[in-house]
Design goal:
mainly alpha
């Protein structure tokens, strides 16, 4: 017997990495939603008319340019976050592609739509524990598929 201490975990490191990647999409969605909320708060949608004559008698072009630049910068940040979300959902779809349809659906409901286990079960007419078992089986299959692809 060896003197090394063995630690046991429910999931392997590779399975935990897959779970983290799947959770990463939800983080991107949350970041984008926060950015969108900030944008909507700072720049509410409204119609504003500008007249040729300034109210104060001075031209306030620098303030308008500053607001426009800030708005464009925030729009660019939002565009980058949308692209990151597109890239991540593409990766998720590639991972889910080789799974049986019900297991893939469970992962998509859980990680892209942030559904609870209970709601997923209701959608699919499964009990919550069955949904969790199928979820764990799907993660294991993804790891196995990744291992086969690495060996090829």
């Amino acid at each position: 017997m060896s003197d090394a201490i063995r630690t046991s975990s429910k999931w392997s490191d590779k399975e935990e990495d897959v779970r983290k990647r799947l959770r990463g999409y939800r983080a991107l969605v949350s970041n984008h939603a926060a950015c969108q909320a900030l944008y909507d708060t700072l720049y509410p949608r409204m119609t504003q008319r500008f007249s040729n004559e300034p109210r104060t008698g001075q031209i306030e072009m620098f303030e308008i340019e500053s607001v426009v630049n800030q708005r464009m910068e925030l729009s660019a940040i939002m565009g980058k976050s949308l692209q990151a979300m597109r890239d991540e959902i593409g990766d998720i779809l590639r991972m889910v592609n080789g799974l049986p349809p019900d297991e893939g659906a469970i992962l998509l409901y859980r990680y892209t739509m942030a559904e609870s286990w209970e709601k997923i079960g209701a959608h699919m007419n499964y009990c919550e524990s069955h949904v969790r078992r199928k979820h764990d089986r799907a993660i294991t299959r993804i790891v196995q598929n990744m291992s086969r692809n690495e060996q090829s």
